[in-house]
């Protein structure tokens, strides 16, 4: 599958300021030599190089936060500089020279740290001519040893050669471009011409047309490298590659696809990479970062991106990304395999998004500027777990540290100094049918689901990453709470029991074999939006090995989520369980658990308890007579357990976190088992008790699952033709029925995305609802 390459993609700025995250050289260049310094190239091209250097070393805007970040950068850069050996052998003892891609990226990453520190005003190595000489000597060694030259053979991951190493190389060259001759620049860029000559195509397989983030990376690379080399055609080709001028627009990175699956942005706001993986939480941000970089560096030059391209980029932020941000962090459901990466927590990638948005706001005007600035200010203000302006450790992990630095802080403080007001939190319920994702936002908490279908994969596990991802797409209910902003960042993925993710129905015993992007055999995955505060979602579930099946529904309201399961059947003989909660309480965490007024400690079987409450988390209402096991346990693991990637692998440092589990037991070989419970995030004990009799389940069968809300609104998921109360449907559907100011209203969607028309009968009146090519989007009918 194209595009599975990986390198350290988090930008050189923790805040994610654009350039560093996505640049690699590309296009074809006739390497005409000239002894002129790069400053001698035409003004527009020189401005591009200057703008790109600014994204590495900043604008020298003093502040206390900048001083702290610079001190940390000094520490890391000096360490790399002092340990660098220039005797013809490896630059660092732990990074051997030789063919292959396992260590080369890290070599350039470390050299980048030195170069950026030297180019940053006030840096410990700033302006040091001796350091410049050592940087040049290191570049020469890496080139002449064919570690990365036009003679280097592409071994291993294509991405490393075509985008990854060039990314870091461009960062280095940008900081010293004024001190290199055109001959030197041309020489060090020769391998980029070999591996990334055309931003539109994959070099190691020219039949592959680049899409999504990979195309955006290469487009920006082409612009910056062309400017360094004084090649206007290269710059223009890079600008044109964003909208795929050479391909007639078919692979434009900002075009909206009106279909299910496929790389890129979609008409409902979805973003996919690798054809079937929802990726607003990584590759989408990489793409946005590349566009923001290109807008920044070309602004005011004859190569400036067209106004319609800039406007389209601005609009992507609120449509695709903002719904999945909570307290400055990206939601787990749209982070793909990167949720297992120690150096890219939800807050890290959230910082990268914030940095890109700050940079976009810097170039925007009018309404776009206000909207972008407001969102960035909101995320910076709300992220109290990992403050955006505080960079305690610029070296995130070994062996290839991502440096986070000065420009992100400076640009953000420049924005905040204008008095930009943070955007308010607005209640939102959105269904993204083209990526099988949904998001539910309230003023106090938010939620999202990890689900899968024949269109969207259960998980992604490539390059030895996401090694415990088996059940992340099997109905995981991710809750984001105000008193637990770091829940998923705080060593969650290595230490959580991966077989008991909240919302999933799983079995004990061996886990399934990891696959790259496994799909399911079921079309039915999706839901309906009633209004900004209510919606229903459904999953026709089958386990990866095919032995376990169930019909699962989630009904979202302002106060909580009602979870129903029916037809739970398994033939494996393993014990089957549905997880209500598996909460990370932190290291030595605490929190009182009550069950019907009874204090629960340790491990306990709870029978006929109507409600439960977990301190600082919320309440749980049991809507049937399920047997629930409560277990509080400490779990110890390392990040290396979940990520062994060559350039991404986590550390072997053990982390211990305490978890509170609440699990419904279905026994072995269940046939037609069910569950019904409600999760009430942030609810108090009294609110939980008061809600215990408020939920009216109208049906929980393999045909239809439905609930009535307090105002008589009906939310229902039909897995086949059937009826509940006053509503009947002709086939699989998600339906909401209720009164509005304008009378009765019906909301309908086709979660299978296979039907042409749905016939819905309400109180003996039948309406036909066209659903062909709606890709699961909600259709509204007045009745």
From TrEMBL:
Pfam families reported for this sequence: Lyase_8, Lyase_8_C, Lyase_8_N
Signal peptide: 1-35
Domain Polysaccharide lyase family 8 central: 429-684
A GO term, aspect molecular function: lyase activity
Domain of life: Bacteria
InterPro entries: Chondroitin_lyas, Gal_mutarotase_sf_dom, GH-type_carb-bd, Lyase_8, Lyase_8-like_C, Lyase_8_alpha_N, Lyase_8_C, Lyase_8_central_dom
UniProt entry keywords in alphabetical sequence: Lyase, Signal
Name by which UniProt lists this protein: Polysaccharide lyase 8 family protein
CDD domains, per the entry: GAG_Lyase
Keyword Signal: yes
Domain Polysaccharide lyase family 8 C-terminal, chain residue ranges per copy: 697-757
Lineage: Bacteria, Bacillati, Actinomycetota, Actinomycetes, Pseudonocardiales
All residue ranges annotated as the Polysaccharide lyase 8 N-terminal alpha-helical domain in the record: 69-371
Family: Belongs to the polysaccharide lyase 8 family.
Organism: Amycolatopsis speibonae
Keyword Signal (UniProt): yes
């Amino acid at each position: 599958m194209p595009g599975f390459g990986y390198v350290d993609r988090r930008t050189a700025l923790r805040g994610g300021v654009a350039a560093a995250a996505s640049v690699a050289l590309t296009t074809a260049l006739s390497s005409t030599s000239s002894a002129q310094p790069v400053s001698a190239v035409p003004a527009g091209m020189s401005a591009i190089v200057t703008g790109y250097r600014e994204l590495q070393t900043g604008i020298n805007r003093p502040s206390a936060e900048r001083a702290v970040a610079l001190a940390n950068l000094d520490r890391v850069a000096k360490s790399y500089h002092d340990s660098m050996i220039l005797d013809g052998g490896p630059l660092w003892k732990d990074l051997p020279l030789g063919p292959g891609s396992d260590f080369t990226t890290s070599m350039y990453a470390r050299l980048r740290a030195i170069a950026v520190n030297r180019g940053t005003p006030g840096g410990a190595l700033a302006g040091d001519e001796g350091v410049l000489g050592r940087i040049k000597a290191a570049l020469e060694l890496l080139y002449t040893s064919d570690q990365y030259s036009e003679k280097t053979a592409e071994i291993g991951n294509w991405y490393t050669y075509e985008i990854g190493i060039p990314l870091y190389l461009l960062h280095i060259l940008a900081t010293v471009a004024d001190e290199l001759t055109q001959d030197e620049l041309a020489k060090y860029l020769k391998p980029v011409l070999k591996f990334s000559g055309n931003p539109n195509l994959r070099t190691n397989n020219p039949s592959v047309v680049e899409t999504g983030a990979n195309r955006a990376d290469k487009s920006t690379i082409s612009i910056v490298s062309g400017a360094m080399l004084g090649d206007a055609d290269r710059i223009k080709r890079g600008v044109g590659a964003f909208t795929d001028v050479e391909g007639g627009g078919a692979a434009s990175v900002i075009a909206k696809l009106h279909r299910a699956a496929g790389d890129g942005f979609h008409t409902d706001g979805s973003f996919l990479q690798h054809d079937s993986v929802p990726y607003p939480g990584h590759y989408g941000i990489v793409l946005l970062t590349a566009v923001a970089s290109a807008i920044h560096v070309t602004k005011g030059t004859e190569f400036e991106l067209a106004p319609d391209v800039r406007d389209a980029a601005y609009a992507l932020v609120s449509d695709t990304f903002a719904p999945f941000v909570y307290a400055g962090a990206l939601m787990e459901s749209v982070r793909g395999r990167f949720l297992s990466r120690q150096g890219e927590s939800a807050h890290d990638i959230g910082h990268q998004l914030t940095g890109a948005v700050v940079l976009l706001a810097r170039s925007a005007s009018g309404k776009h500027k206000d909207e972008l600035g407001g969102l960035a200010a909101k995320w910076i203000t709300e992220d109290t777990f990992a403050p955006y302006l505080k960079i305690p450790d610029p070296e995130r992990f070994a062996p290839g540290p991502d440096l986070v630095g000065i420009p992100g802080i400076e640009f953000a403080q420049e924005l905040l100094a204008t008095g930009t007001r943070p955007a308010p939190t607005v209640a939102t319920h959105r269904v993204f049918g083209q990526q099988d994702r949904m998001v539910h936002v309230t003023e106090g908490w938010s939620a999202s689901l990890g689900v899968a279908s024949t269109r969207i994969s259960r998980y992604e596990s490539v390059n030895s990453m996401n090694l415990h991802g088996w059940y992340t797409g099997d109905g995981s209910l991710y809750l984001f709470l105000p008193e637990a902003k770091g829940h998923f960042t705080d060593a969650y993925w290595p230490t959580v029991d991966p077989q008991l993710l909240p919302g999933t129905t799983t079995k004990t015993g061996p886990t399934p074999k990891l696959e790259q992007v496994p799909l399911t055999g079921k079309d039915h995955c999706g839901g309906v939006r009633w209004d900004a505060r209510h919606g229903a979602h459904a999953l026709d579930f089958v386990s990866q090995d095919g032995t376990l099946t169930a019909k699962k529904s989630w009904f979202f309201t302002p106060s909580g989520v009602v979870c129903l399961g029916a037809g739970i059947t398994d033939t494996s003989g393993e014990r089957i369980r549905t997880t209500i909660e598996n909460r990370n309480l932190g290291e030595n965490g605490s929190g009182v658990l009550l069950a019907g007024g009874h204090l629960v400690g340790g491990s306990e079987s709870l029978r006929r308890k109507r409600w439960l409450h977990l301190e600082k988390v919320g309440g749980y209402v049991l809507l049937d007579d399920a047997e629930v096991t409560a277990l509080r346990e400490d779990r110890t693991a390392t990040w290396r357990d979940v990520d062994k990637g060559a350039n991404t692998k986590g550390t072997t440092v053990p982390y211990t976190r305490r978890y509170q589990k609440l699990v419904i037991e279905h026994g072995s070989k269940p046939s037609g088992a069910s569950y019904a419970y409600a999760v009430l995030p942030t609810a108090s004990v009294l609110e939980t008790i008061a809600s215990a009799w408020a939920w009216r389940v109208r049906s929980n069968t393999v045909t239809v699952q439905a609930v009535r809300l307090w105002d008589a609104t009906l939310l229902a998921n039909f897995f086949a033709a059937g009826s509940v109360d006053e509503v009947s449907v002709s086939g699989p559907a998600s339906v909401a029925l209720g009164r509005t100011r304008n009378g009765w209203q019906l909301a309908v969607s086709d979660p299978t995305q296979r039907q042409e028309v749905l016939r819905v009968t309400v109180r003996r009146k039948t309406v036909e609802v066209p659903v062909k090519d709606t890709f699961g989007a909600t259709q509204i009918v007045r009745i």
